[in-house]
Amino acid sequence: MNNLGLKAKKAGREISRTESGKKNSALLKIAEVIELSVDKLIAENAKDLQAGKANGLDAAMLDRLALTPKNILSMTEGLKQVAALPDPVGEITDLSYRPSGIQVGQMRVPLGVIGIIYESRPNVTVDAAALCLKSGNACILRGGSESIHSNQAIAACIAKGLSEAGLPTESVQIVATTDRSAVGELITMSQYVDVIVPRGGKSLIERISKDATIPVIKHLDGICHVYIDDKADIAKAITIAVNAKTHRYGVCNAMETLLVAESIAEKVLPALAEQYLEKGVELRGCPKTCALIPGCSTATEEDWLTEYLAPILSIKIVDGLNEAIEHINHYGSLHTDAIVTEDYSKARRFLREVDSSSVMVNASTRFADGFEYGLGAEIGISTDKLHARGPVGLKGLTSLKYIVLGDGHIRH
Amino acid sequence: MNNLGLKAKKAGREISRTESGKKNSALLKIAEVIELSVDKLIAENAKDLQAGKANGLDAAMLDRLALTPKNILSMTEGLKQVAALPDPVGEITDLSYRPSGIQVGQMRVPLGVIGIIYESRPNVTVDAAALCLKSGNACILRGGSESIHSNQAIAACIAKGLSEAGLPTESVQIVATTDRSAVGELITMSQYVDVIVPRGGKSLIERISKDATIPVIKHLDGICHVYIDDKADIAKAITIAVNAKTHRYGVCNAMETLLVAESIAEKVLPALAEQYLEKGVELRGCPKTCALIPGCSTATEEDWLTEYLAPILSIKIVDGLNEAIEHINHYGSLHTDAIVTEDYSKARRFLREVDSSSVMVNASTRFADGFEYGLGAEIGISTDKLHARGPVGLKGLTSLKYIVLGDGHIRH
């Protein structure tokens, strides 16, 4: 691991000063190599799938683990998209003269070496490598042990692409061992690694955050809320609340709790409940909600704190905006929360006062996503408050340093 | 401590949505109250000074601890300056339409609750409170135990000013106990505190970073370099190198190591050495440097890694730009480094490739400072790579959340 770190740091220095054109050509070369290696990748992946089956992985996990011609194509398309994104590195902003005569500005720079720890999906190997490379960072990738053959085959493609483009192959390194202690080393090598990005379930992320001595960009719960205000347009409210819950269930930006202003509840909840029940969504409500919706079970305190990631929804009737904001700031997870309202002042207050990484007016929480936001791709969604909040794209993998231009200026 | 945290979190919510005008009027009220309390402050400070003398504090520490009419005036001027700065909170940037029809932008928001741990200087109490308040954050301040009476007297002024302005007095809280375990609690109350800013010596900061479970904005060493390139203007080089070392010795942005291109060393070093020796600066050089400067002692490996904070300078003759950049990135502390050159391409490379929070061309490292950069004031200088690098002003105490505006938009 130490050797990996040392090499990554060295490669990181080189990649940090590499021109955009060269980085882009490396990304395209990697895509080319992957396109030529589909059979090999699928063969290596078959070993992982076979081992996975033997080890009793469930169908969902095997599905995430599988490489198919279709998801290999989406990997190479991802590489081409990242190549097409503007390079954030070296951008200089706010360069202006100070009274002393010096010019002061800020330059966007890579973070250095990024350690990425993820679970079984092998496509993360390519996505993460592409984002790190484009943002001028070296990376050390530690995928799930279930996908070790797939990841090593992908890593070989990446290394070939890098080398064909004349970039150091150590810019992207895969931890070749499935030994768990490697993770422990990776997250404490502060002399080599600048930031850790864990991707996976909450327990993985909590474990890593607890033990890491390096800053972690983390994504914990997605307890997202939609608040239907008394001044909501009912048609919009229903469309958004249905989309936010039922578009996909297992995603972090799905709504988990619906808040409804008391004075509009009677008009909106029965119609909404009908659509949810039709889609098989289990409803758990506060007593007032239960009185309006037959078949709704009573929500417990625990429900307001739960990310179901499933066709379950908790519903609470609130007095109005103040109680809604208070509920979200208390029970929410700083992820994504939306208000549905036609009221200008309430929209303005909700945007300012809800302390989440994405705050929305009259839009589905499902939009909280790097592609939808125009970041091109994301390495994850941060629920931290420092550095990067919300979808983390190329900029989230960089920082700003100050630059000062003088002409022999000294301080008096 | 728990109670302090709970109150801070509540006050933080209120202060985060407080209008700029009200925050500014609180800052000015606090200044007013302090102006009316000079005698009281000096009397309370006298208790600390007396105890400090009895406990054998040295003259430098007593000097930092002392409140005088002059430094009280500079505290109130600081408050007025912060009041005059633009409010960073709520600023919306990059709001633009996406193909889906939603508008996506970013809003600058406070971090929440900031814990500040500092050593004996009581003026930090006012400076830190002012920056946190203006940036919409609540803060919990833990000053050195030597200044407990002074800090409590200042805290009373702050509380009075806040309350006269109609803001919650819990926005700024002082840890009233000198018990060391309070620090341990403060840096692990992740449910209440969002970030820790330690201000003080390296050992304090290292200790806090090690034990904190909350993100820390830290300032470790300031091992700053000036590199005199072979294309340097010799007059500028001498002026800058003298200023960077001798303007003040005990500051983090003073030069600690001078690098000189071999081909210009003979022309610049003897003249420079003369000025340093005149000012009583001890010189420690590489063998080539020692050959050029009589009386220069030989530098050890340890010297390149040392922040002297004293009239001592290490000097190394390097081949040229590549070796200079390599030396800085290897031995430096990511703080501030400068090149002196008239060569456009070398200046361009130095700016891009030196990985420090401030990188300068033809200017003294002494400019690395919040006031000089136009930030108005600083809570510290960060040598971290995430979140904020270099002088941390109001913006460094905020973060960006995404805002999304739609009109019933859902994801397809």
Summarize the structure in short.
Chains A, B: Its main location: cytoplasm. Two copies of one chain form a homodimer. Chain A is α/β, with parallel strands linked by helices.
Task: Give the proportion of residues in helices of chain A.
Answer: 40-55%
What is the CATH C level class of the largest domain in chain A, in words?
Answer: Alpha Beta
Q: How far is the N terminus from the C terminus of chain A?
A: 48 Å
Number of strands of chain A: 16
The CATH topology of the largest domain in chain A turns out to be Aldehyde Dehydrogenase, Chain A, domain 1
Oligomer: homodimer
Structural class of chain A: alpha/beta
Catalytic activity (chains A, B): L-glutamate 5-semialdehyde + phosphate + NADP(+) = L-glutamyl 5-phosphate + NADPH + H(+)
InterPro entries (chains A, B): Ald_DH/histidinol_DH, Ald_DH_C, Ald_DH_N, Aldehyde_DH_dom, G-glutamylP_reductase_CS, Glu-5-SA_DH, GPR_dom
Family (chains A, B): Belongs to the gamma-glutamyl phosphate reductase family.
EC number (chains A, B): 1.2.1.41
